Amino acid sequence: MKILRMGKDVLDRLLVFASLTALLAMILIIIYQVFSRQILHYTPSWAEELSMILFVWVSFLGIAYGFRQKLHIGVSFLVNLFPEKVQDMCDLFAKILVIFFGGVLVYYGWKFTILMGNSTMAGTGLPSSVLYAAMPTAGIFTLLYGIELLFVKGLHQEYNDEIDTEAMEAVKDGEV
């Protein structure tokens, strides 16, 4: 069990590192593209397409990360009106839907990635499958995190709308 947890931690770190690296690269490419267009009066043909590829990857990996951290929006006000057993059944159903969604991403994302493997993107010359491979990759992470959610109570973070008066006082007093 310890080895499995260590392997999952490595995958978690890989997901976050890949997402943040892609986000940083996308930001730098867009800055370079704007600089080139406005100052050098030259627009590199690859910049827009590469930033689009990175945006798609960051978005799909963000979906998986959102499931890991329980960040996706949940409509719990209706579910909270039910008895606890019904709430637990709704929670289990939602987790099964997450796993199903991950499976759909893997299956159809893989089929689409293979389908697009023979075409190339005009700006970068990369195969189109590089863009679409984000779907099955995010699907694998979503599947793993969905299965992990089966062993955790609740699907969403608890929202607390009460004002933290101590924090507000510290801000007013200039302590923060």
How would you sum up this structure, described in words?
This protein has 176 residues and is an all-alpha fold. The protein has one domain. The protein has 7 helices and no strands. It has helices at 2-40, 45-69, 76-79, 84-115, 129-132, 134-149, 165-172. α1 packs antiparallel against α2 (45-69), α2 runs parallel beside α6 and α4 (84-115) runs antiparallel to α6 (134-149). The longest helix is centred in the first third of the chain and has 39 residues, at 2-40. The model has no long low-confidence stretch (mean pLDDT 87). Pfam families: DctQ.
Question: What's the topology here?
Answer:
Layout: H1 2-40, H2 45-69, H3 76-79, H4 84-115, H5 129-132, H6 134-149, H7 165-172
Which percent bin holds the helix content?
over 70%
Strand fraction equals: under 5%
Tally of extended strands?
Answer: 0
Structural class: mainly alpha
Question: How many separate domains?
Answer: 1
Q: What is the structure about, briefly put?
A:
The protein has seven helices and no strands.
Describe this protein with a few key phrases.
176 residues; mainly alpha; 7 helices; 73% helix
